[in-house]
Automatic annotation (TrEMBL):
Residues marked Lowers pKa of active site Tyr (site): K85
Coiled-coil region list: none
InterPro entries (alphabetical): AKR, Aldo/ket_reductase_CS, NAD(P)_OxRdtase_dom_sf, NADP_OxRdtase_dom
Residue positions binding substrate: H118
GO molecular function: oxidoreductase activity; structural constituent of eye lens
Keyword entries, A-Z: Acetylation, Eye lens protein
NADP-dependent oxidoreductase domain sequence ranges: 20-301
Source taxon at top rank: Eukaryota
Native source species: Engystomops pustulosus
Active-site residues annotated for this sequence: Y56
Family label: Belongs to the aldo/keto reductase family.
UniProt protein name: Rho crystallin
Amino acid sequence: MELRKDSYVTLNDGHKMPVIGFGTYAPQQLPKSLAEEGVKVALEVGYRHIDCAFIYGNEVEVGRAINQKIADGTVKREEVFYTGKLWSTFQAPDKVRPAVEKSLKDLQLDYIDLFIIHSPIELKPGDNPFPVDENGKLIYHNTDIRETWKALEECKDAGLVRSIGVSNFNKSQVELILNNPELKYKPVCNQVECHIYLNQSKLQEFLKSHDIVLVGYSVLGSSRDEKWIDQNSPVLLEDPVLKSLAEKLGRTPAQVAMRFLLQRGIVVLAKSFTPARIKQNFQVFDFQLSEDEMKTLEGLNKNMRYISTLQ
């Protein structure tokens, strides 16, 4: 398929998701205004898919940027595809709709295009997003994920969200939802860590067979946030094979790493708050990797994760 700036994938419920999304997660110590400015630049450059989450703590700022760009005529609301996420302390069925409504209020939007379960791991319901016991260990909880899903289906029926999906789910967790006899809507996507060191080809094959899109995050490695990332892990964009291929093509390693996933039919989320880089990361539509180049990059897979699953 030819990839263009306005390329999208059609989800199994008929809605369309742009193939490149702008990620808005930033380590806590960074000012929230960075996400606001970043989203404005992204929309001006041509991104039409914005990925955020309750736990990022910046939906107010991200929503403000979207609304400002709608107000000044840069985009129309229906051109923007916004993804929000259900945090792990809100998986009890009675907490799902209030969580969606809280995001809508913070964003100042009438609907959310895609709302996904952030993680299959549930934490103890309550106001503390990371509940811990007296030993500092996270307190888990065990709502049946199918009940959570049912509550999300109701939010879709109510028009609060257009599409629903999951994130950080493995094959058997996705199957649990798919095999539920009461299932009304299949997940449209599974958003997972995906890059040249973790190419997720097996999971992608399984998802494809059920018409579920794989959305990749940390496609350029990761933000090296000390809270989540092993500081000794290799820096993906400094991979010698990736770098020499990028040099040969006259591209940045980031552009080649993204193009590799796009050509495999994966939706990619790119994250940067540097205007020049936001622009650069979107310039992946005017070149193509050959079959041999794709194979070379496939050979870099080492099933290595940057992110521990609860993120």
